[in-house]
Design a protein that fits this description.
374 residues; alpha/beta; Rossmann fold; 2 domains; ten-stranded mixed β-sheet; two-stranded antiparallel ribbon; globular
């Protein structure tokens, strides 16, 4: 009968989809540095996406055990990828408004959050990127799921910058409680008001234009952030308008950099073949930070130099600066033969270099050893 034939054809096509989907799944344990990220189990998921996956990809027996209603539900490939990239927690949308405007954001909440105080990492994307893209490329949500911390991704508005770059080169965006810094700080405070954030363990990170803005946030709000990570960025106050911004990107700041009233711990990454933001900017950022440490006298114990090589990837040199108490106050990673890309990132995101070293893991390691209270 035509009905039976149609049902058999549907079942055959469904089984082909199931087999194709299962073949596309990555290994159940994802590597990030030397430690494993949590495996992602379809059975651990809940909510609309979980129901969609159940109805579309699980066979009839598994659907019956899960209590799902067997029916045909289509699913987009980006929904599958989102599940596999972002872990078992929630990745929710939000927005913040003040007199400087409105900015949206995405917040990752680990699945183990039950009201306890957790650290918060603020992630500032680069030009043309989005929170989802930046999260996929850095895999910071996987670390947050494993080690229990919040991650918020403020998003630059296209109306504020056509390429979605943070406007780090404008003086209004280089000061406390004004412009884009006030919006990013406002998002930080909003997360603190809605969720139980450990106020002593809030960190800010950025890539490229986001890296330049992260340096600004650290300089303008040293009482809010405990440490800062800058990847392929520039020094605080490196430019005063768009033309000087382009010059700084290519050759470093053309004027004397702003002094810091207080320098919080800093970790930086920069490729020595970066043709978008020249490596010399990492030197300027380091020097600016060292002058702001310990009343401008700089670290008393000099610098330790370590060299390494990622298996099958890039060689790197790490410069570690210690304070008078022996604690590390600044780490500078120079990645050899690397360009303008997030080191150790996933190819699921833009501007990433999977050949490492793993910037996300190293930044979190650096942050996890620091708080505002010590």
């Amino acid at each position: 009968m035509p009905g039976v034939a149609a049902q058999q054809n549907y079942q055959s096509r469904s089984m082909q989809h199931i087999a194709s989907f299962k073949r596309s799944l990555p290994p159940r344990t994802h590597r990030c540095g030397a430690q494993s990220l949590p495996s992602i189990s379809l059975r651990d998921q809940r909510g609309p996406l979980w129901a969609t996956l159940q109805d579309t990809f699980l066979d009839h027996g598994e659907r019956r055990k899960a209590g799902a209603v067997p029916q045909s539900v289509s699913i987009r490939s980006h929904q599958r990828r989102r599940l596999l990239r972002f872990g078992r927690g929630q990745f929710i949308d939000g927005a913040f408004t003040n007199t400087a405007g409105t900015r949206t954001y995405k917040l990752y909440i680990p699945s183990t959050y039950a009201g306890q105080a957790l650290p918060l990492v603020v992630m500032l994307h680069g030009c043309t990127q989005s929170p989802t893209d930046f999260a996929a490329g850095t895999r910071m949500n996987g670390l947050a799921e494993r080690d229990e911390f919040f991650v918020v991704y403020p998003e630059q508005s296209q109306s504020a910058n056509g390429s979605k770059c943070w406007n780090w080169f404008e003086p209004v965006n280089q000061q406390r409680d004004a412009g884009e810094p006030s919006l990013i700080a406002g998002i930080t405070h909003k997360i603190m008001s809605v969720h139980h954030v450990n106020a002593d363990r809030i960190y800010v990170v950025g890539m490229s234009a986001g890296g330049a803005m992260a340096a600004i946030m650290a300089a303008a709000y040293p009482d809010l952030y405990a440490a800062v990570g800058v990847h392929s960025g520039l020094a605080y106050g490196a430019a005063h308008d768009l033309p000087s911004g382009f010059k700084a990107m290519k050759k470093g700041p053309t004027r004397h950099k702003r002094p810091l009233t207080r320098a919080i711990p800093l970790i930086t990454f920069h490729g020595d073949r970066d043709t978008t933001v020249a490596r010399v900017n990492a030197d300027h950022l380091r020097d600016q930070w060292l002058r702001g440490i310990e009343g401008g006298v700089g670290p008393a114990n000099g610098v330790t130099i370590d060299r390494g090589h990622v298996v099958g990837g890039h060689a790197y040199t790490r410069f570690t600066h210690h304070g008078t108490d022996g604690r590390v106050i600044l780490e500078e990673w120079i990645i050899h033969h690397a360009g303008h890309a997030w080191a150790g990132g996933s190819s699921n995101g833009s501007f990433t270099d999977p050949k490492g070293p793993d910037a996300s893991a190293e930044m979190w390691r650096f942050f996890s050893e620091r708080s505002r209270s010590n």
